[in-house]
Design goal:
With 315 residues, the chain is mainly beta. It has three domains: 65 residues, no CATH class; 105 residues, no CATH class; 94 residues, Elongation Factor Tu (Ef-tu), domain 3. The chain is built from three helices and 20 strands. Strand 8 and strand 9 form a beta hairpin.
Length: 315
């Protein structure tokens, strides 16, 4: 029914709900668009084959009727909205924004040099004057460098999370080096002004996410929770200190672990200190990947995710 997801449906029957492509006897190469089930369709759990499938019951020797089909053309009215594999509303704002950048990456980007009537900040409909090489682009997202993303283990800065401020559209290109380009603000999320940098707007990506374990073992940590807080719950966005260089790609699934505590063994004085096992408490769905940093959506969680918690490939 409306509101279901492939993840939830698989989770009703399986220990790992992200395994739905496999239990539907499919793989990443076969699934070009995972948004393929609709409200009103019936999902059967085939206990003999051990997988979920769409369709009608088939004979298994237990009295279930066998349905024989002849070649024919059939047209079924289905609702317009397909059931997605994950809650898309939670990640859509993050598919092209925010941006993880290197320390000097925005240095040579086009920049706002003046505003209409000298305003400190500009909003929708206002003009902005820009200098820099536009490289043929006409629509730009505006950013300013944000907080550094530090590896919790090494304290190394892996990048900077550039804060998305809004969108500008070119009105008039300059005709000489001494003249700036003229832009108009078409969208404003936060205040933007002189000195803020611009990046050509990326086209809206086609979202075809198929959950899968990473190609190679991955172990990392939570670096930050989006929004500046230190804890996160279900359907919240976090960053981790692993990316494409570590074997992650879009759709990778990782498990969330809380480090086991160090405790005293009061029953054996000769072995007074012990470490409890790490406890798995949730699943993380990676939906945007940079070289050393990734954004993930917390899909299921039995505890709050915290900065420094472990992420690792599922068993």
């Amino acid at each position: 029914m409306k509101g279901d997801t492939l993840w939830d449906i698989s989770g009703t029957f399986l220990q790992h709900p992200w395994c739905w492509p496999k239990v539907w006897d499919m793989n990443r190469e076969d699934i070009r668009n995972p948004h393929w089930i609709y409200p009103g369709q019936i999902v059967y759990f085939d206990r003999v084959a051990g997988r979920l499938r769409l369709g009608k019951p088939v004979g298994d020797g237990s009295g279930t009727p066998t349905v024989r089909l002849s070649p024919q053309v059939r047209s079924n009215e289905l609702p317009a909205d397909a059931i997605p594999s994950i809650p898309m509303g939670a990640i859509e704002p993050f598919l092209s924004k925010p941006l993880v950048i290197e320390e000097t990456e925005l240095n040579n980007a086009p920049r706002i040099v003046a505003t209409q009537e000298g305003s400190v900040y500009i909003s929708v409909g206002a003009k902005a004057y820009v200098r820099g090489n536009l490289k043929g682009a006409t629509t730009f997202d505006v950013f300013h460098p944000g907080k550094p993303l530090k590896d919790p283990s090494t304290d190394q800065i892996l990048g900077y999370e550039a804060v998305y401020l809004g969108t500008l559209r070119l009105v008039r290109a300059s005709t000489s080096e001494s003249e700036p380009h003229t832009f108009v603000v078409v969208n404003s999320k936060e205040e933007m002004g002189v000195g803020d940098r611009m990046v050509p707007q990326e086209p809206t990506p086609i979202v075809n996410y198929v959950p899968h374990p990473p190609e190679q073992p991955v172990v990392g940590q939570i670096m930050s929770v989006y929004g500046g807080v230190t804890q996160a719950g279900q359907n919240q966005i976090i960053t981790i200190n692993r990316g494409a260089k570590d074997g992650l790609d879009r759709g990778s699934v990782l498990e969330l672990y809380r480090l086991g505590m160090m405790m005293k063994d009061t029953t054996d004085p000769e072995k007074a200190v012990m470490k409890l096992p790490d406890e798995q408490y949730g699943d993380l769905f990676i939906f945007r990947v940079f070289n050393h940093v990734s954004y993930g959506l917390i899909m299921e969680v039995r505890d709050t995710a915290q900065v420094g918690d472990i992420v690792r490939s599922p068993e």
